[in-house]
Amino acid sequence: MVAAVSSRLILGMLILMAWSHDLSAQIGESDADDYFEFLTRANHYSPLEHAGSHGTLGVGIGAGMASYETPAGDLVMQEHWRQTGASVASNQRDSSRVNMGQIHVSKGLPYSLDVGGGFARDSRSNAEFVSGYVQWTGYEAFAMPALALRGQYSRLMGLATTDASAVEASVVVSYGFLRLFTVYGNYGVGRHDMVVRVGPAFGTSLALAGESDGTVGRVLIRQSRSLGMQYQLLPPFCIVAAEYSQVGHGSGSYLAKVSVGM
User: How far apart are CA 38 and CA 247, in angstroms?
Assistant: First the structure.
């Protein structure tokens, strides 16, 4: 009788241990996926521009802010969204969002081409994003919608363990009204290449997903959608823009910009 009960207890413990291991792996995989999805949002670049061409004399420079929701499981963020030498404990955040200052530049070229770039930085983690884009306006006319094709590239640098880059192609449609307002929408598809170094020296939470010491990488193809509006605060030299953006099926991001130029 005692032997039978003991064997059942041992069997139950083995089943519980196996179930706990599977649950840990699922949690690790979920945390890893959440972190990589966050990287696709943070590394998605938007110049907050409409589809119309700026013309050969057009030039602009602006400053803005971007706000991104962080993953629900904050352990991965503490371990990997931090500057080199910072401890995990010192990286606990008071907010569920990451807010980054941005700088934007743009220049009009012949043949309805525009080029530009951006720089963003999270002062707490030293994460930095360098981005660039080229846009060709295929159609625009007075009192009619404008249509453009845009290609862009962005790269994440400055983190202790994380590197990421993204290449995206998108279609932009915009329409101006009342001479002061322009609404625009963007639909794109991008490739996101991400690598996170794991192990005792960097962070261990992502190792729960079955990865050994070394690196955890992902290559994700994600659709992006955005809706924004520009307002000519002081025509034609000062413009205020706001945008809501979504990458994949994750949470939305909020961006804003004030720019001067023509």
Answer: 9
pTM as predicted? 0.80
Torsion angle of C-alpha atoms 259, 132, 183, 223, degrees rounded to 10: -150
**What type of residue is 4?**
A
Q: CA torsion sign, 208 to 215 to 192 to 85? A: positive
pLDDT digits (tens, 9 = 90+) for 177-233: 998 999 999 999 999 999 988 766 555 556 545 455 578 889 999 999 999 999 999
